[in-house]
């Protein structure tokens, strides 16, 4: 009886561990940006709204809050064009306004987190998560700022 319980428990643990892994198949298709947060400032591209962080002055001390808000609103148009596509063979494309990036990638599991590793620049990787049909990216870009991007799968 103990062997059966142990076997069932081991099977359950393996099943749960595999269920949480993101695979290439999970990512296939085109994804459009729905939201972005950086330094506490939030842009909602679906509703065309922004929320300015309480400590907005650390990013732009020379501006008034109204000027900073206007600057972020300009970002709605620019960043709102972002989308990414994943194709078979581990090929990823990223588009934003006039900028395009494409190349190979692979999925890396480290310390309980999932990352996309760029095949062109091996040091470039970013954390991803799939939750409730949304794809979350966490990108460290400049000056220690971490960009949190949310994408939803585009309907064919």
UniProtKB/TrEMBL annotation:
Signal peptide residue numbers: 1-19
Keyword Signal: yes
Keywords carried by this UniProt record: Signal
Protein name as catalogued: Lipocalin-like domain-containing protein
